[in-house]
Input
Amino acid sequence: SSASSSSSETNPEDDVKTREHEFKAETSRLLDIVTNSLYQEKEVFLRELISNSSDALEKRRHEAIKDASEYGLKGVQDDLEFRIKISTREEEDGKELKLIVEDNGIGMSEEELTRNLGTIAKSGSKEFLENLSGGKGGKDAASNIIGKFGVGFYSAFMVGKKVEVHTSNGKESFVWASEGTGKFTVSKSNEAPKPRGTKIVIHMKEDCKTIASQWAIEETLKKYSAFVSFPIYINENKYNEIGALWMKKHSEVSDEQATAFYRYVSGATDSPTFRMHFEADAPLTIRSLIFFPETNPERGIGMHAKVDSGIALYSRRVLIQKNAHGLLPPFLRFLRGVVDCEDIPLNISRETLQDSQVLRKLGEVVTKRALKHLKDVAKKDPKAYDKWFKECGFFLKEGACTEPNHTQQIAELLRFESSETKNAPVEGEEQQHQQKEDSEEGMTDNANAVTSFEKYIERMKPDQKHIYYLVAPSRAQADSSPYLEACKAKGYEVLYLYAHVDEFVMQHLGNVKGKFIVSVEAENADVSLDSDANDTTTISEDDKKDLLKWFSDVLQFQLKEVTASNRLVSSPALLSGHEPEAMRRYRAMASMASDSAVNARLTALTDKITTTLEVNCKHPLLLSINAARKSSDSKVQKVAKDIAFQIYDNARVAAGTMDDPREMLGRLNEILLYAVESVDGDERRKS
Output
């Protein structure tokens, strides 16, 4: 809409004419909306005015490239830099407080002042962008212009009972004034910055004076406008010492500057392990600086607590969302930094986003680049990456379980210990040199080394079909597990999983680079040992069949079946087909949070129904049991049954399926007593 105007001379004896204008009816209604309903927080007015000043400065800087004599800085009177000044002035009687925002930007003529401020939604910045011809400096100028909607200036009426705009375009000076009641005046000004610039004077409302305190101004600028590309002075003191580092290239930012910026935007006290400078012009115009923290940001905040997104979303250096919810997938909430996108569609108050599709696209681009950056770092400096992964790798494991679109990309970043990492070779010249130094200092234990799926697959044996893993509480227990015996005998590497979430990760991954991921505890592990035709330690096939039936009868209702194992070397038995440990823990947690009916159903889902006991018929213990079960001595037969139960319980312990080991104590005492009595009898016979 446009403004209708009539003029009158308020001071006939003076040569200064004051022209009074009225907003059109629809503009008055819009002004009321802007003043009372559009913005959620009153403090936003300062962000809008700073943005306007920044745009005015950018316009002048662009014009100065073409015509320095007309638009360039003029020295002392015009300052030696493009800048924004914020100050307050209180009247002597203390009844009125003025907040002043001043810049030495392009300035406006009387016609521009009337057109731009007399019409809501008339943006001079938008018009400047449309007229920009793309000449020298055109692209940079366009990217630095903030204003689009032409309503931000009127937010000043949220806190001001009267607003004055003194402006000079290098030739003439005018003042625009209004109380936000539907009328405004334009007259000559003696207070406009010289030779160019604009000064906005806000007569603060009584209930808004606290917003104009220096502390409140600093907090507002820190929240919204800390990275405007021009210096900001508050009561003559420079405020924005830290620049918008995301607009610079990686080589232009020192580690010290990056660390200071990281701590500023994140509020953290640690240092970032890695940083990523990323810029793109298609499909979206993006400038970003993202940090990967040194420590887990969720450590110490509670078992189920999660931190907010640490990425701040900016548009042309102005904050849109401090914690950009929904921009990145939840598993990347550990990232800290800034993403600045010129293309994000904002609502008219520039506080919320309008097009979720563009936001999703932006999130996808940044997510892929962040994961790619981690992959590059892992390749370039594996030692540093492995150290970081031990601290923050949990987030990537979460992503493997929750983000199917990024599963394979995340899989490349996961690291686990394995049966082969104890003496794993160190990659890279720098790392090999460090290993040599560690060796000279006696630091040769490399038991905590980790491997990637890629390196694991490179080391796979020619006849190995799958990627194998084993869940265990510790490396010592993994190394001694009966489930490892067949793989160890065949030379197959096995990944060791210690965290509860790891098994869920493997189940969600399914396969990596065409190789299925299989638990060595599974029935379909496909790690059978070749039978030795010359082996005389085993029992006959008929005895084997009878022994397996005897085991099934002794352990009735405990198992699905008892079979002869072909994957054991030194252990007497193992379980297969049992419920994975991760699922058992989940069921236990669900049981604690459920009613009696649900608990009854959960209890019914025991692993005993589907569990198979695989026994090693070559093991001395099984050979002895086979002989004892045939004894005519009832006491020997009872001990044989007790030992059969104990073998089953030992297999349950190895599989991690025994909830309460106390249930086998009585039987163990019986077996020990029989052993002691047997030894005592032997000694008496000898004597």
In short: The two ends are 119 Å apart (CA to CA). The first helix runs from residue 25 to 36. The CA atoms of residues 226 and 367 lie 25 Å apart.
